[in-house]
Amino acid sequence: MASAQLRQIPREEVGKWVIIDSTVYDLSRFKAMHPGGLSVLLDPEVAGQDATEAFFALHRYEVLEKPQYKRLRIGLVAGEKPHIHGRIAGELSKVPYGEPSWLADGYYSPYYSEGHRKFQKAVRQFFDEVVYPDAIDREADGKRPSQSVIDKMTELNMHAMRMGPGKHLQGRVLMNGLVKPEEFDYFHELIITQEFARSSLRGYGDGLLGGKVIGLPPVLNFGSEELKAKVVPEVLSGKKFICLAISEAHAGSDVMGLQTTAKKSEDGKEWIINGSKKWITNGTFADYFTVGCKTEDGFTVILVERGPGVETKQIKTSYSTTAGTAYITFDNVRVPVGNTLGEEGGGIFVILRWTTQRKVFGKPLHSQAVIRAKLAGMIARAESVQNWLENITYQMCNMSYRQQAGTLAGPIALLKSYSTSCGQDTARDAVQIFGGRGITQTGMGKFIEHYHRTIPFDSLLGGAEDVLADLGVRQALRAMPKDARL
Ligand code: HEM
């Protein structure tokens, strides 16, 4: 803050002005424009007084940071210094349980090295300074994330890092050289994912090539060399967007019930695709579509480039339009057979392998036991999810890709289901604690309102909660020893 240039005003001379956090504000010209009205500012407990407590009971800190309100500052109370702060770019929160325990003061973790810590700090700084301001603006205007943010992410190779460890990182400078490609592991990926979530704006986060995280792996793992050489660099440099187009109006998580068809042309050189897809993240602005199709042999995944016969329309969901959620129609779209990802008829393998891995009053309020009980539940849920997540990440760091697919699909499905159900419980509790503010899109409870509104997405995307939990249990049942008895 530019407090250094502000003049010193003795407390007894503050007169008609107002003090907030040892800073003196002249509200005379602002009064009539105050969104909270005039009368509150004329209240004898506010006008000419220290209104710090009253102010922070009603506003988020960021209100004071806005340039139009910064101009109302005229001085500092002599001999005092402001000490209240909001979000400080790049810094860790000191609020208990406000960070995963490995980032909390005095805690240890077997999973993270000094290198991970430096990496986390740099990623947070980047998110706070570059991503967060754009997230706020785009949530407000509903437009797709700014290309300038996508380009800055490209400079750090963030798009490539979001795909996890692997060959696609070779030869790249990651996070300005902070981590070598061969050292990048699943904990680095986890750090990026969690910093993404911290921006608190669910739709925007998905808008930042969220479709790529699920749409590109089938290309990387099952595409021909020719296809990869063209598509992967374009997508990882943020120049083109890709999305995963599986679900349909008739079939959500039920992949085998899809109705979009792909038939071979007479000369056998092309696929001809017809059908529609619904709820496709990034679809409105995607250049490539990883499409699940019904074919003669079963279910086949095919990469489609935007072109004749492909149409995308925005779907208005209860999260923001920044995610580009689309309804897509394919009308006799012709695609070279070389765009087949994996085996013809082998599509279920291509998709399931990825979707199961997707993660992804008077007295203070806390003086009431019922509120503390809610907080206890919220803390326990967040801590248990984080610990389970770190354990699975650790297993991933030590298993081959094949072992991960075989051993971890069930636990990941259960963890995904558990974490989104915890998230929904926590969102409900948070709204109860915040009251009306928790259902208001502006002001103090805006992130609670946003979270409560958007958490159901996570419980549905990548496999509905109940379906995934059942998948996890079925995998466990298959592994039951045949000779074990009670
Ligand atoms: C620098 C001084 C102030 C500024 C710049 C300011 C600005 C604002 C803004 C931008 C809002 C809209 C709320 C939001 O969406 O976050 C608001 C609401 C409000 N303000 Fe202020 N305000 C100031 C001082 C005060 C003071 C001293 C009081 C008296 C206690 C007050 C009482 C209120 C009330 C009651 C609301 C409505 C809150 C709600 O809708 O929940 N404001 N103010």
Gyration radius (Cα, Å) is 26 Å
Give the termini separation: 67 Å
- What would you give as the CATH superfamily of the largest domain? Butyryl-CoA Dehydrogenase, subunit A, domain 3
CATH domain class of the largest domain? Mainly Alpha
Q: What would you call the structural class? A: alpha+beta
Give the strand tally. Answer: 12
Uncertain parts:
354-360
Mean pLDDT across all amino acids: 89
What amount of the residues lies in strands?
Answer: 5-15%
Order of helices and strands: EEEHHHHEHHHHHHHHEEEEEEEEHHHHH
Hetero groups in this structure are: protoporphyrin IX containing FE
Named CATH topology of the largest domain: Butyryl-CoA Dehydrogenase, subunit A, domain 3
Largest sheet: 4 strands, mixed
Q: Identify the overall geometry.
A: globular
Number of helices: 17
Overall tally of domains: 4
In a few lines, what is going on in this structure?
By secondary structure, the protein is an alpha+beta fold.
Overview of the molecule:
The structure is a single chain. By secondary structure, the chain is an alpha+beta fold. It has four domains: 8-77, Cytochrome b5-like heme/steroid binding domain (Flavocytochrome B2, Chain A, domain 1); 101-200, Butyryl-Coa Dehydrogenase, subunit A, domain 1, CATH 1.10.540; 241-341, Butyryl-CoA Dehydrogenase, subunit A, domain 2 (Beta Barrel); 359-479, Butyryl-CoA Dehydrogenase, subunit A, domain 3. Helices cover 42% and strands 14% of the residues. It is built from 17 helices and twelve strands. It has helices at residues 39-42, 52-56, 62-65, 67-70, 114-141, 147-155, 158-161, 186-198, 202-207, 210-215, 217-222, 225-236, 347-355, 369-398, 401-434, 446-460, 465-478; strands at 7-9, 18-20, 23-25, 73-77, 242-245, 261-264, 270-280, 288-295, 298-305, 310-314, 326-336, 340-341. Strand 2 (18-20) and strand 3 (23-25) form a beta hairpin. Helix 5 runs parallel beside helix 8 (186-198), helix 15 runs antiparallel to helix 16 and helix 15 runs antiparallel to helix 17 (465-478). It is globular and about 90 Å long. Residues 354-360 have low confidence and may be disordered. The site of protoporphyrin IX containing FE (HEM) has 21 residues, from strand 2, helix 1 and helix 2. This is Cytochrome b5 heme-binding domain-containing protein.
